[in-house]
Structure formats: C-alpha cells, structure tokens
Amino acid sequence: MIELKNITKVYKMGNETVRALDDVSLKINDGEFVAIIGPSGSGKSTMMNVIGCLDKPTSGEYWLNGKDVSRLRDDQLATVRNRNIGFVFQMFNLLNRSSALRNVELPLRYGGVHGHDLYKRSVDALDSVGLKDRVRHRPVELSGGQQQRVAIARALVTQPSLLLADEPTGALDSHTGEEILRLFRQLHEERGLTVVLVTHDMNIARHTNRIVAIKDGRIESDVS
Amino acid sequence: MNIFETIRTALESLTANKLRTLLTMLGVIIGVGSVVALLSIGAGVTANITGRISSIGSNLITVSPMFNQPGARLTMADVAALSNPLALPEATMVLPEVRGNLLVAAATNTNNESTSVSGEEPAFFTMRAIQMAEGNIFTANDVLVQTHVAVIGSAVATTLYPNGENALGQTILVGSVPFKVIGVAVSVGGFGPNNTDDNVYVPITVAMNKLFAGRAAGLNAVSDIYIQLDQANDFTAAQNDIQTILRQNHHLVPGQPNDFRVFNQAQIASTLDQVSQALTEFLGAIGGIALLVGGIGIMNIMLVSVTERTREIGVRKAIGAKRFTILMQFLTEALTVSGLAGLIGLGLGVGASDLIGRAQSNLKPAVQPTALIVAFGFSVIIGVVFGLYPAWRASRLEPVEALRYE
Description:
The complex is a heterodimer.
Chain A: E1 2-13, E2 16-28, E3 33-37, H1 44-51, E4 59-64, E5 67-68, H2 74-84, E6 85-88, H3 100-110, H4 115-128, H5 144-156, E7 162-166, H6 174-191, E8 194-199, H7 202-205, E9 210-215, E10 218-223
Parallel strand pairs in A: 3-8, 3-9, 6-7, 7-8
Antiparallel strand pairs in A: 1-2, 1-4, 4-5, 9-10
Helix pairs in contact in A: 3-4, 3-5, 4-5, 5-6
Chain B: H1 3-15, H2 18-56, E1 60-65, E2 74-75, H3 76-83, E3 91-106, E4 112-120, H4 123-127, E5 132-135, H5 140-145, E6 149-152, H6 154-160, E7 171-174, E8 177-185, E9 199-203, H7 204-211, E10 221-222, E11 224-229, H8 235-249, E12 260-264, H9 265-308, H10 310-318, H11 323-359, H12 369-396, H13 399-404
Parallel strand pairs in B: 4-9, 6-8
Antiparallel strand pairs in B: 1-11, 1-12, 2-10, 3-4, 3-7, 3-11, 5-8, 6-9, 7-8
Helix pairs in contact in B: 1-11, 2-9, 2-11, 2-12, 3-8, 9-11, 9-12, 11-12
C-alpha cells in the first residue's frame, strides 16, 4: 500500500525556490491500476520520483507497505527500490551491451540472487512478457515494443508489489503502445500487481481504473 | 554482485570501445615496459662492472703517475723500492706495467686495428686471473731474454683472423715489431679500456725497449704499478706506506704535492657501483613518470566514461545498485585497464630487454623479478588511485539527476 501524507518537495533553481509538490496526500491500495496525469511542470514527475523512492520529500511522510521510507538513507532506499518497486521508463533504459537475459538478471544480482535461481527467475520473467525466444538478443536486435517488454520483465523479476511506469508508451507507435498497455492490464489482473502509470496523455490514462490529475504541485482531481 | 560478474561487466564496457581502451592503456603499457626494460639494462650494466672489478681483485692497489703533472713518472726504481719487504711488508706482489695504444696487424693478411698493448710480468696473468683459451702465457725467461712473443685477447684474435684461422703461432706486427702469438686469452666479455678481450700482452722488457722506448729513454719508466696486498691488511695503512716510500724515492719535500696517484680497486668498485645505482634509479624514475602520466590518462578517460554513462548509472541505481556497487564497478574497470596494460607492459619490457641483449652483446640486460613485481604492482596501484575519484563521482550521482541526463 502507498500512502503519501502531506508531501512537499521544494527545489532550488538558482535564486528561485520551486514547490514541485505542495502538501500532497494520496493513498493507493494494493492491486490498484492508477494513472497520474498532468502537463509538464505539473509536478507529476516529482511525484513519481517520490513514490519510486528515487527522491526524498522535503517534508511529509511516505509510507510504503506499512513502512515510513521518507527518511531512509540512500543505500536503504536502493534496497527498497530493488525489492518493492519495478521501474519502466519511456526510453526503455536497457544496457545496450548486454543481452536481454543479462538486463533482466541485473536487479536480482543487485539483490544477491545467484546461480540457477537467478537464471530461472530471469527466463520466467522474459517468458511472462512473451520473449522466451529472445533471451540472447541484445537491445539493438529487438524492436521498440520488444525492448519495452524486456524492460517490463526487468521490472517484474524481483516480484515487486508496485510497478511504476513513466510514459511507457511515449517512444512507441500507437499500435505497439496499445499492446504494452494491454500487458500492464494483464499483469494487474492476473497477478494483482499495483500499477502506477505516469503520463501527460489522457488517452493512455483512460486504460487505467483511477486517474489522479496533478496541477501546480497539487492534486486537482482523483477519479475512479 | 560477485567479483566475476563485476569483472565481466567491466570487460563488456571496455570491449565496447576497443580503440579508446587501447589508447588509455598505452600510457601504462609504455610506463611498465620502460620500467622493466630500463631496470634490466641498469642491472646488466651493474653486473658487468662489478663482475669485472671483482675479477681484478679487491685487494689490489694501483699506482699511476699524476695525470696533470707533466714529467711526473714512475720508474723501475720505484718498483724496486716498493718490492722491498722491509719497507712494504703488506705487499704480496708488486708488478710494473707499460701500456699504450699501438697499431696491431697480422703479418699474413691485411687486417689490423689500433688497440691497447701492455708489457707485463708473467705474474700479471695470475693476479688478473686471465685464463688461456689456447696456448700459454710467456715465462720469466721470456721477460729476461726479451723474446718477441705475445698473448692476445679473443677480440683481437677475431679481428686479425676473422675467417677462423688459428691465431696461435701466427706472426703479428705490433707497431711494426714482429711478435709470435703464443697464447689467446679466454673471452670475458665486457667493454671499456683495459678490457682483456681487446688487449695484446707482451713481456714487459720488450715493451719498454722496443715498443715504448721513445717515451722516456733510459729512465725505465712504467705506466702503472700494481700492488697486491695480503687480504688481512688495512688498505689505508698500506696506501700511506706506499705514499711515504714513493715521496722519499721522488725526493718530494713536505708541502710539495704527490706526483703519483694511489687508488685501490675497492674504491673504484664502490664509486662505479654508486654510479650504476644512480643510473638505475634514474632510469627507473623515468619509467615511473611514464607510469604516472599513464595513470592520469586512465583517470581522464574514466571521468569521461562516467559522464557518458550517467544515465546507465541512474538506471542501475533505480533498480537497486548501492553506492558501493557502483563504486566497485568503475574501480574494477580502471583496475582492469591498468592491470591488463601492466601485463602487456611486462611482456613488452621483457621482450625489449631480450632484443637489446641480442643487438648489443656487451650489454647483458638482466630482467629483475623484483622489477616485474614492482612495475606490475605500481600499475595496479595506479589503477586504484586514479580510478578511485571517477568511481567515487559515479557512486555519488543522484538517481533522479542521473536518469534525467541526456
């Protein structure tokens, strides 16, 4: 379960201070499929960074799975990200020199998994996104949609409770984008995974069950 | 992440940019290679010098006329005075020598060379431990009756008789005086003046009367006097005794400077040893500077690499890499570059030493196992030292900033 309590995030840009998030509170239950929507500069990226434990709030509390993670040290946050959160990025962000399999193995390696367990879990993750026959391919040998599937496999492999996707269809054509969105829905329905999708595009947000709109660092609307 | 995985990741990113990796390694390769090669050469030179000095014998004192005083000379009268066991009881052998450079030519062909010719007593060969490869040395009788016989060094033999003819029994012309070759000395290698291989030895009486007679006619002048001491004796005391005897013999009044020089081989040996030691250190330092420059090259490229891969670092952090993991990843890369370059450098250094040894037979480079270990160790240390800062920078990147980096 995700619970943001009065989260404020202030940035210093030169002499100006920017309130990217202004006293935001939000609760997302386990197994929800949520879109966070807003134009650029609205604070949705900051919100995603806080939810993803990539960034710490200036004030407020962030409870993830019953634990306050807003005051953890950097290395503790790394462990939280590794175990509880799977990231999917707009530009896939795969390691281009490594095969699909090695890309998917990486979070497990950082989590200390090794040997046959490492191999089996990684192949299973690739299988679950329909890429069982592409394990030895490198990202350059795969299409955009396939690369994004590898990235999703990488996000799933540690069996996190939360899948956090930042404009996951932004670099794909609309047809492939639809496929990826269907995959998210399938994962959400079959595994009961919490999926949070960050986008600026209402057409994409519509695929989810709940739409949280952000504007000027505040929640403008929250529609289920 | 275990160590093998870390190394594999490092190799992956290094092979992704092979030319850059090679250029980065070049500095360390040259550094390690030159340290190994230069130290080998230094050790070879040192071994050569000390080997020759110890073959001469460390209990030997040489007396020569003072070089900057015209007219200063040593004579057979000085030899006689020093040979008096009552005056100089420490001496076990006192040998005069007459030497100079003369044209030496074969009588049966046109080969000739200008080389060092010395007139000696037979005991000289014992004192210097010069062995005969062929034939024999001349005898006391040869000195007495002034036989025209010569013992020649191996290099002289090959110069005069390059086609493998036996030098033994041949007639050679030393400054137009004919001599019969009765002995060829065993080659000892080495270089420089007084080298056995390049020398022609004749009975001292013949040298004084026939070869260098014009120098100081009737004075029985000699070039050097060798005095071998009983090993147990104090060198300084013996040197003082020699000075006293010669000053008396030369009628020098108190306050007048010596017209001769007295020095022992131990002094020469230690001086040469210091020189070659300094040479080795100097050569090592040059290689060390090259290594340092190589290390700076590694740091430079690693900093570029960290900047280029900011986004990759961000992704790795997002999926759970801790600071230490990132630090180790980049440190391993720097270490792999410098370690690999170190190994290649060792190979090149050993190869270069070998080549120099073949090309220049007088210089016998001796590859020093300690130099190999030290040079390789240094390259590894350089990898750590110059890799640490870029790796630290990488590990400190904020994931949010790193992911946003274009």
